[in-house]
Amino acid sequence: MISISTDLLDEIREHGVMDYPYECCGLLLGRYGTDGKVVTATYPISNAREESAKRNRFLIEPQELMRGERFAREHGLDVVGFYHSHPDSPAVPSQYDLEHAWPTYSYIIVSTSLEDATDLFSWEQEPDRSRFNQEEIRVIRG
Amino acid sequence: MPVTISIPAPLRQFAEGKSQVAVEAKTAGEALDRLTSNYASLRRHLFNDQNVLRNFVNVYLNDEDIRHASGPETPVKDGDTIMIVPAIAGGAVIETEVGQSLPELSNEEILRYSRHLIMPEVGMQGQRRLKASSVLMIGTGGLGAPVGMYLAAAGVGRIGVVDFDVVEESNLQRQIIHGTKDLGRRKIESARDRLRDINPHIEIETHETRLTSQNALQLFRNYDVVVDGTDNFPTRYLVNDACVLSGKPNVYGSIFRFEGQASVFWAAKGACYRCLYPEPPPPGLVPSCAEGGVLGVLPGIIGAIQANETIKIILGADDLLINRLLLFDAWSMKFREFKLRKDPKCPVCGEQPTIKELIDYEQFCGISHTPQPEPKLEEISATELQARRLRGEQLQVIDVREPHEYEIARIPGTKLIPLGHVVGRMNEIDPDVDTVVHCKGGVRSAKAIQALKRAGFQGRLINLKGGITAWSDDVDPRVAKY
Fold this sequence. Notes:
The complex is a heterodimer of chains A (142) and B (482).
Chain A: E1 2-5, H1 6-19, E2 25-33, E3 36-45, H2 50-56, E4 58-60, H3 62-74, E5 78-87, H4 95-99, E6 106-112, E7 117-125, E8 132-135, E9 137-140
Parallel strand pairs in A: 1-3, 1-9, 5-6
Antiparallel strand pairs in A: 2-3, 2-5, 6-7, 7-8
Chain B: E1 2-6, E2 20-24, H1 28-38, H2 40-46, E3 57-61, E4 64-65, E5 81-86, E6 88-89, H3 107-112, H4 114-117, H5 123-132, E7 134-138, H6 144-154, E8 158-163, H7 187-198, E9 203-208, H8 216-220, E10 225-228, H9 233-246, E11 250-256, E12 259-265, H10 273-276, H11 289-292, H12 297-315, E13 324-329, E14 334-339, H13 361-364, E15 379-380, H14 382-390, E16 395-399, H15 403-408, E17 414-416, E18 434-438, H16 443-454, E19 461-464, H17 467-474
């Protein structure tokens, strides 16, 4: 389970719509608790390199992730997952997503269109890498 | 030589929870081999089946990517730190791959859905699609009842229910989602309990609200398919336009007396409701079910067709009711079908749409917000009428309902002249005596009075407020309400 506030979910949706028709992405920062993950901040990654992203389909380069990790550590947080958008596509992970993920992290995917962001789901990889399972999102007001 | 490998948080569960592991190695590759021979289950997350480092996994030796040095051969020395950092990939879905990430079915669910599962058109994949899907039903009335019950039984994972009414006795002849025990309850609560009883494995979301231009898009965005079970034109146009604007399929059904219609309006794939009916009929021309009646089983048939098409949309079936209008006549027991065509000039789904946001649908359908001042009409309450009769005053009471309604219930001592005949049979009404006119609720009797006045009737005409229903409520409960 992943807990996240309505405000942060709105930020993710807005980021997705802003970057439409390109994919947006960012880190989910927070804590690993006994009752699942708690997201306390998002760390949007600028999608200034659409062309290269299109080519290699990597949205967050390791250097950027390292910067994000460093930012998180400075604030006493962990990277608990990632979000990205699927423009005009369902908010479900692809086989490609499956091969490029680790367990435990939350992968929030938001489906975007020109007008707005529609579905938003969180996914967690099965420890044996066989599939993604939909993860319960506990929405906190605020 | 001991080097320290930092384990990223998500992989620590495969390394006994350790955040750092020290290993003896000469090269970076050897360090990773050591690590993964100590913790075998960690290996598959770092290396693929060909034993090559996964392409999204990056290994940093003291902040430098080993790919920029000598790869796995990059030498390491005492005190070095190795970090494992993923890159995050993204990619939109290819349809056939969706199944990989669909929710699993429990053994109980497999048993429950076994009649679905053994058909290749549904199968495990299709049933998991149903579980992953969400449907919003507008209304839990005659159409919503079978729609909700069949979708719940079929295992649609999340069903949203929009209604703001309460269950009334006259609903139960066709709205089989509600029962006698539910009379007076809010329909969404009654519907929710019934759907939960049918299938406890699914989620029911209740929205006790009237669907409006303000809330429709917000509501629709959270669902895959919208099923229209409304009974009025403003809401029907609202559902259509909101579906077009949010890109959702609109599974349409409508019923009247013995005739029903069904179609799937999905602007991305075909015609929408406005392509078929660009303009609503003038207000009052098409009577509602409350005025015109409806055979109770008819919404059962049309609603079941809507549920059928909804399930097919979720399963990705071909041959949907897209660009097809199905007409059903329950009295002659005939189905007919019309071909529909997307209208390139459609104001909402055409090539140059003029409707880009939701509008005022009451106004669009000619229903004015400010009621037009009616010509002054003399009225009497049921109790006053009774009092005047008991005082022995000279009065005649004209019932303008239909004969079959007269069969159901009547006020004693009245004369039946159905609304359609009231002007023609005007000479049967004595203009020298006060005349009280009544119907079921007071609307038709008011029309009758206006028609009589227009036709030149000279006597005094008084409308019975609330009709025979008020008579039953306030004077004589033995008179049946219907």
